[in-house]
Design brief:
single chain; 290 residues; alpha/beta; eight-stranded parallel barrel; two-stranded antiparallel sheet; 10 strands; binds zinc ion; binds fe (iii) ion
Length: 290
């Protein structure tokens, strides 16, 4: 058995919450997972059910899932880059604080968020907004990592270059901020995953490889530098199976959770097949059977 930490995005359903998420992950053969604690498109949130949380913790123990590897993803609507609408911007900050508290109720220590879009603001202004947002959100937060996702540069997204991320990391005054890579986003942002070690060298020199706390594993439907952010199933995209394997098994990222966010195939979750093929380092054309 190799010891990679791999899982996928799973549901967090009303009736089963954390327990359901754990059992869905187990059904894919995962040893970690990622959830949204409610809708990924809205800020609506129900109260977390503590009994289902305890049941989830028990199931994690039973199936060998370390909660330190479990990730929450903030909903896409949060945009810390643009503060033109002050009310909205303040709402996003308080929403993020509240979401961190929800993570803590679930016993989860890591949350990924999208740095956001600048729309018609100067990039520098947008980056400073993110710095301000992170300082405000993470002030007095302990025992928790907030992870900036490396983006593809779709539309006016910021945080899609080493320079953007470096600027944010250099200018925040809180410690517990890390980075979440995404193989599709890196590719679409213009970095070649077939030279993944070169990318990691560049990242290490500018930001520090120890800041990488999670990697989203997705193939891409589009070529390098396309700035599209359309995820493909592993081995079915432009990055290709071997380059994905080399990233997942890169010694420098050992011990970090890898999370699939690939699309369903004909309404079926592909994660069991993808995790199998990644564990066996052998591509299986599972789509012929789905
Ligand atoms: Zn994301
Ligand atoms: Fe992602
Ligand atoms: Fe994406």
């Amino acid at each position: 058995m190799n010891d990679i930490i791999i899982g996928s995005h799973v549901s967090f359903l009303k009736d089963s919450e954390l327990y359901g998420s754990v059992m869905e992950s187990v059904s894919y053969g995962s040893n970690t997972f990622m959830i949204y604690t409610g809708s990924n498109q809205s800020a609506e949130r129900r109260e977390i059910n503590h009994e289902l949380t305890i049941k989830g913790w028990e199931a994690m123990k039973e199936y060998g899932i370390d909660i330190n590897n479990v990730i929450v993803h903030a909903p896409f609507i949060v945009n810390l880059a643009n503060n033109k609408d002050e009310r909205k911007y303040n709402f996003y900050i308080s929403f993020m604080k509240n979401e961190i508290n929800r993570c803590k109720e679930l016993g989860i220590h890591k949350m990924v968020f999208h740095p956001g879009s600048r729309t018609d603001l100067e990039k520098q202004v947008a980056l400073n907004n993110i710095v301000f947002g992170l300082n405000t959100i993470m002030k007095d937060v302990n025992d928790f990592d907030l992870l900036i996702e490396f983006m593809s540069g779709k539309g006016t997204e910021v945080g899609c270059t080493i320079e953007d991320i470096k600027y944010i990391m250099d200018n925040i005054n809180v410690d517990n901020v890390g980075v979440c890579l995404d193989t599709c986003h890196i590719n679409d942002a213009g970095y070649d995953i077939s030279d993944f070690n070169d990318f990691l060298d560049l990242f290490d020199k500018n930001i520090g490889i120890d800041k990488i706390k999670c990697v989203h594993v997705n193939d891409s439907l589009n070529p390098i530098g396309s700035h599209k952010d359309r995820h493909a199933n592993i081995g079915y995209g432009t990055i290709g199976f071997d380059n994905i394997i080399n990233a997942v098994y890169n010694e420098r990222l050992k011990g970090i959770p890898f999370i699939l966010e690939t699309p369903y195939v004909n309404g079926v979750a592909p994660y069991k097949y993808e995790i199998d093929s990644i564990r066996n380092k052998k591509f299986i054309d599972y789509k012929v059977n789905l």
